[in-house]
Amino acid sequence: VVARDASRDRDGVVLAEAAAARSLCALPSIGRNTARGLLRCGVRTLEELRRRLEDGDQAVSSQLDGRQRYAIRHADELTSPVPIEDFEEMRSAVLKAAKNSRRMGSKEDDDAWEVIAVGGGRRNEASHDADFLLTHPKLRTPWEMRGLLDKILEGMPEVLGEHGDDKEAAFAFRMVTDGVMGNFWEKVSNAKRDLGKQHEGKSRGNADYYDKIYGVFRTAAGRHRRIDIVLVPHDQLPFALIGWTGSKLYNRFIRHHANSRGLYFNSHGLFRTHDRKAVGSLESSYNEAYATSLKHLKCPPPAPSRDAAGNDWWPPGWDETRVAKTERDVFELLGVPFQPPTSRDCPS
Questions:
Q1: DSSP assignment, residue 216?
Q2: What is the distance between the alpha carbons of residues 69 and 28, in angstroms, rounded to a whole number?
Q3: Which of 84, 283, 59, 322 minimizes the C-alpha distance to 185?
Q4: Phi and psi (nearest 5°) for 96?
Q5: Band of the pLDDT at 150, cuts 50, 70, 90?
């Protein structure tokens, strides 16, 4: 009995520390290593962290850099639900920067940029950050979007960082991943990788290879809000919408269902695990060779999906001439009923 009670006590401590770490990591720029260091200092909440920092606690201060101190000063704004007026201001700023980043040849084409809200906001859930997918119907593949991210940043001074005259804002958290989209096809096409095991153990979860901006947006009213901007080639948009809408647990169920049918699903596409063939999309959406050295070759058509028994299978109305253009199309290829974003919340 004593041993059982001691085990329960240890489990309770572990769970409490895990909850405290999640609370600290809710602030941009504070990762797991920093959270563990703060826990060793006895810090359990953001409120306690800010108080001890203001009191000049050197043990706590030594765990933090300039970016993290900046985030702590604005913690209330960065961790509170984003009101609709701030959300719309951010969306408008992303759209304006996109239109100014690359002229597409006509006003009609320039107006075709799409900025799509995803994450908790799309599931009708209050969200502490604003997640946007940015896409254009004429930019269908990763290599057609190269260099776009830098131009987006140039057109968005509201995303704080090392630019402008505000020296304090230079410490604002900002992370950019650029030029990594091509790595996805290298991963999928590598025959040495067992795609069927991507969902086991320490999976990458909802992680993907899109180019992104993670940052802090300062509104016209001076409020600080978290913003994520994800560049999505238009051919991959239906899959990205599902992956970035969430919820995390719902997407985990979808990935496990796909894996049970011999399929690999993530925010880029749907693939057969045994032969790496794309389902519901063209390989030219991922493989740059078809746009460069091998552009004279004919791209193979989309492959059939797989049924519950692992056999080739087309949903009703599908064949190799059709590609996925909507989320509903992806659900059909997976063989599951369509659920609107507002029905994809799963308690974790």
A1: E
A2: 11
A3: 283
A4: -60, -45
A5: confident
As beta bridge partners, residue 133 has 116, 230
Contact (Cβ atoms closer than 8 angstroms) between residue 78 and residue 24: no
Phi, psi (deg, nearest 5) at residue 309? -90, 0
Spell out the residues 6+ positions from residue 185 whose beta carbon is closer than 8 angstroms to its own: 286, 287, 288
pLDDT in tens, 163-213: 555 667 777 888 898 888 888 888 888 877 777 665 444 444 457 999 999
Residue range 301-336, pLDDT digits in tens: 999 999 999 999 999 999 999 999 999 999 999 999
Say if residues 155 and 101 touch (Cβ distance below 8 Å): yes
> What phi and psi values does residue 24 have, to the nearest 5 degrees?
-70, -40
Summarised one tens digit per residue, pLDDT across range 16-50 is 899 999 999 989 889 999 999 999 999 999 999 99
The partner residues of 290 in beta bridges, in order of sequence, read none
Does residue 16 sit in helix, strand or coil?
Answer: helix
CA distances for 96 relative to 100, 148, 223, angstroms: 6, 13, 20
Which of 173, 336, 169, 168 lies closest to 265, judged by CA? 336
Quote the CA–CA distance of 303 and 151 in Å, as a whole number.
36
Mean pLDDT, the chain, integer: 88
Contact 234, 174 (CB under 8 A): no
Q: pTM of the prediction?
A: 0.89
Counting Cα atoms < 13 Å in the Cβ hemisphere of 269 gives 33
Q: What are the percentages of helix, strand and coil residues in the chain, rounded to 5? A: 45, 15, 45
Closest CA to 257 of 308, 202, 305, 197: 308
Cα(206)–Cα(79) distance, integer angstroms: 21
Q: Which of 336, 267, 341 is nearest to 119 (CA)?
A: 341
Residues in the chain: 348
The three-state DSSP-derived secondary structure of 270-301 is: EEECCCCCEECCCHHHCCHHHHCCCCCCCCCC
